[in-house]
Each structure stands twice: as C-alpha cells, then as structure tokens.
Amino acid sequence: MNEVAAGLAAVKARIAAAVIRAGRDPAAVTLVAVTKTFGADEIRPAIAAGQRDFGENRVQEAAAKWPGLKNGGPKLNLHLIGPLQTNKVRDAVALFDAIHSLDRDKLAEALSKEMARQERRLALFVQVNTGEEPQKAGVLPGETASFVERCRAKHGLPVKGLMCIPPQDEDPAPHFDMLARLGDGLGLRALSMGMSGDFETAIAHGATHVRVGSAIFGSRG
Ligand SMILES: *Cc1c(COP(=O)(O)O)cnc(C)c1O
Fold first, then answer.
1. Model confidence over 73-128: pLDDT tens digits?
2. How many A from CA of 58 to the centre of ligand 1?
3. CB atoms closer than 10 angstroms to residue 1
4. Could you read off the pLDDT of 170-194 as tens digits, one per residue?
5. Cβ(157)–Cβ(112) under 8 Å?
6. Which residue in 13, 93, 117, 135 has the fewest CB atoms around it within 10 Å?
C-alpha cells in the first residue's frame, strides 16, 4: 500500500475508535485531509483511496493545485481552513465548498455578496479564538453569539458551525469544550476542531470535522 493510503487508513481507524469510545455516530465525523504544502502526487493516492474532503489554508496555493486534481474525478469537498482576505473572496467562493475561518463583518459581507453573485452556497464556520490569543484570528468567545447573529440577520449567511485552533502549548480539551458549549447555545451542530495531535480528544468533545494533515501525509518539513 502507498504511504499516503496507509496513513489515511490509520487515521480513519483512529477516528472510528474515538467515535466508538465517545458513543457517537460514525457518520457524524468528517475527516478533512489537510494537504497544504503537499503536491498532486501525494494527494492523488488519497483520492484514489476514497478520501473526498480536503483542507487547504491558502487560496492561491489551492487555486494552483486543485482544479487539475478535481478535473474528471469524483466530486470533492474543498475546505478553506486558513485566513481569508476580502480581495480573495471571489476566488475562494469559486473554488471552495466550505470556509472555516469566517471571523469579521467585512468578510461576512463580502462572502454574502459573492455567494449570491456566483449562486454558490458554501458551508460556513465561524472561527473562535478560544484562547484569546492576540496574534490569532477568530472572534472572541464573548463576541461569538453577537457575530453569528449578525451573520444570520444582517448578512443573510447560513452559518453551519464553529471552528477553533487551541493555543499550541495548552491542553486542548477545555478549548474544545468551550467551542462545543458555544455551539450548543447557538444551535450550531457542526464543530471544526482537532488536528493531528489532538483529533481524538476533539471527537470526545463533539467534533464533527477534524482537520488532519501530518498524521496522514507526513511532516511538512
Ligand atoms: C495545518 C492545519 C491543520 C492540520 O495540522 P496537522 O497538525 O498537520 O494535522 C489543521 N488546521 C489548520 C487550521 C491548519 O492550518
């Protein structure tokens, strides 16, 4: 078996075990395979092995890579998991099926306009800065409810869920727990949380979308 296919199978088995331990429905957890920095030769074996959801953190990198990979193949779901600048919204709406980094009104407004213009309905996750880190993207926990409300009422955006990236040097569990509570309070079932180092913990806390890169594709060097 190809190395990528083996990595993918191993991660899927760990996800399945974590889902069972949590007493959750296996269909409720989507693996988003994060392919940033990896090329077509590394991605193709994952598609061949049946993987359909992929994550990229830069619009330009994804726009260079994915149209060729998608061409003539099975229907794929592309997730933008990195920050989105408003001047890239047009390209992002054309290419991606989900955006996990919605975190400000200006972006909400631009997405709303562009989704209408292109007649595309993307799945949108509001990124929450659960660790309140100054350098990190995302709305603050205390501002999440009002931001989601503005996305819905003012910008007419159908928010699907919440996303977080816990601080690197902390136990992620309290951050996952916080995101799950925030989602619960807002009627948002989808939770994008958990990476290679902590996706099993995230699943225990209700993650519906785990974003896993290096555990599948190897280290990014
Ligand atoms: C790179 C990245 C991931 C995947 O990280 P790994 O540790 O390689 O699994 C997940 N989420 C975001 C936002 C990322 O930028």
1. 999 999 999 999 999 999 999 999 999 999 999 999 999 999 999 999 999 999 99
2. 12
3. 10
4. 999 999 999 999 999 999 999 999 9
5. yes
6. 135
CA of 33 to the centre of ligand 1 (A): 9
Task: Please tell me the distance from the alpha carbon of residue 78 to that of residue 62, in angstroms, as a whole number.
Answer: 9
CA distances from 195 to 27, 53, 86, 178, 207 (A): 19, 14, 26, 17, 11
**DSSP symbol at 139:** B
pTM for the model stands at 0.97
Contacts of 28 (CB under 8 A, 6+ apart): 19, 208
Q: Residue 153 Cα, ligand 1 centroid: separation in angstroms?
A: 31
Q: Is the Cα dihedral 214, 217, 36, 207 positive or negative?
A: negative
How far are the Cα atoms of 41, 134, 210 from residue 29, in angstroms, in the given order? Answer: 26, 30, 7
